[in-house]
Amino acid sequence: MAMREITLAKAVSEAIAEEMRRDPTVFVMGEDVAEAGHPFKTLAGLVQEFGVERIVDTPISEPGFMGIAVGAAMTGSRPIVDLMFGDFLFLAMDQLCNQAAKTHYMSGGKLKAPLVLHTNLGATRRSAAQHSQSLHALVAHIPGVKVALPSSAYEAKGLLKTAIRDDNPVVIFHDKLMYQDKSQIPEEEYLIPFGVANVVRQGSDITIVATSSMVQVARQAAETLNREGISAEVIDPRTIVPLDEETILASVRKTGRAIIVDEGHQSFGVTAEIASRINEKAFYYLDAPVRRVGAMDVPVPFSPPLEDLTVPTPKVVAEFARLMMKGEPFHVA
Amino acid sequence: MSRDVIMPALGMAQKTGLIVRWLKQAGDPVKAGDVLMEVETDKAMMEVEADADGTLTDVSAAAGEEVPVGEVIARIADGSVAAAAPAPRAPATPPAVKSPPAERTQTSTPVRTPAVAAAPAPSPSPSPSKNGRIFASPRARRLAAEQGLDLAKLAEAGRPQPYLVQHLAELRALAPEPAGGATFAAAAPSAPPLRLTATLAKDGLAEFCAWRRAETGAPTEEIAVMAGMAAAAFRPSASNAELVVAAYAFGAARSFVNADRSGLGSAKAVDTPANPTLVLRDLRGAAVTDLSLGAEAAPTLSVMRRGVETFITLECAPAQLRPEAAIELISEFAGRLAEPLRHLL
């Protein structure tokens, strides 16, 4: 298969352009999406091809344009709403979670809301507490919303195309520090289905489940551990709703140990949910308590040295793995 | 003590800024909040203010120059000083946005060391604790049970707890092979069929069907409703495959295909059950109050009446369903039978 290397930002614009050529009902709306091509340059070039009728700049009013998108989705369009920062989700919550997520259910299946909310997560960009949050667990909590977390340019393109074709509201989060990261993608069109995890690295001693950019953290931890003779399996769920439980459980049944790494705050988040499902469904295969590694439960600091301390690192993940192999962090009453 | 004046990042993808003009010159006294210069980015024109009182010195970039974001272009010195000669540009700390994620994760110093101290350290105890409880991981406990090994023997031998899988080899060396081999292992090759039972104080089937008939005016058969419930209960094990429930009631056999995907009770029946995924027997009208028939071609749910109670059995071969899946199937089916509205959630 012919391959080429592109950035994640380019993968996003390619996915959207391909879907817009295929389906005339797809359009993009958001702040600075047209001429500016988005501050992270994820939408560069789209307005030149599709014009301002389909790449629509909105006023700075997330509740307003999110509401417009829900209405457009219910009446036959397939809007892609760009939220410049994932932190602005709070402004769009009613439209997304009370309206779009429940439209299909409350209309007895007569209406659909096929919209994509395209946004980002991730700290360490020195953007301070209101522009650095990873809020994907918030929306994953709401039945009726699907949540995709691509971990590379390849994943971003395939998952975004699937999101645009989905008949339900999908929120897709990219790590804002990964927009310039490159990966190999096929020349041909491809889609990545939802709910199918990717076993990034095979291993036999410990399972590391990691989302979004934390897949890189997990891979680096796994490489360190490998040099010490500990074989770690790395799993990228790709979508947390739907969640490919089977792949995760099969891995944990094999290894007997699991660490969950996610950049959302640790408490009440994605790490807790996945750890809990493992406890419920693979308890008798566990040789150590399941470990969570999330972001610290503090507002993300602006100070760079402090900010760096709040996010999961390969060093912390590897250290947990070593302790679990030794059986040290065992809770004994 | 002096403070650096840097080219600020005013836009998110901004790499450089253009100095349009200086409003203060080197040597000028400045107050915090005074506008020092105007900067143009690809997006906007911005005024850059002094962040401290003092004297502007070391102005190293002139109007009209493009300067990388983060570079020091002047200083504000304490008090009033004579205008210093332009200093060479100091290298600035690049903004974090330039470092790729791989780098950030390698360079950050974790203080978040795993909180081992927070977890009570396992106290090496040579024998089972006072109440006789042995601490072992769930996996070690399960494997020991499957292999007929007694973890208490490790405790008696003085091995500190808790026990993990890695300690089982030691235990195996301690325990002589019992005559006839470990019971579980011996049983494995010809594993017996699974038989699970559930009892409901009352099933809500008749009530639900009466309500549905009244609401919809449609004929509502209890067996069709039950087939829907059984299909939904089995769905997690079947994922997206076609799911055929062969249903037997009052001597008649019918099949329902994907009965969980149409409204409860409205699945169309097909006459001949062919290769069913699941068999459902409604024996509530029969005198049978219990049965044990062994595994058949498909997992089989039988529903019987015992006075006012409803009694359910699930029989299957170990190869047909894992124990966890069998437990989930009968629990889900029983739950829906007891409270049919659960099915709608």
Beta content of chain A = 15-25%
User: How many strands, which pairing sense, and closed or not: the largest β-sheet of chain B?
Assistant: 7 strands, mixed
Task: Label the overall shape of chain A.
Answer: globular
Report how far apart the termini of chain B are. Answer: 68 Å
In CATH, the architecture of the largest domain in chain A is 3-Layer(aba) Sandwich
- Terminal CA distance of chain A: 56 Å
Strand content of chain B: 15-25%
Oligomer: heterodimer
Give the count of structural domains of chain A: 2
The strand order across the widest sheet of chain B is 9-15-14-13-10-11-12
Query: Uncertain segments of chain B of ≥5 residues (pLDDT<50)?
Result: 82-111, 115-128, 179-189
- The first-level CATH class of the largest domain in chain A is given as Alpha Beta
CATH topology of the largest domain in chain A: Rossmann fold
Q: Classify the secondary structure makeup of chain A into a structural class.
A: alpha/beta
* Tally of alpha and pi helices of chain B: 8
Main β-sheet of chain A, in a few words? 7 strands, mixed
Task: Calculate Rg of chain B over CA atoms.
Answer: 38 Å
Radius of gyration of chain A: 20 Å
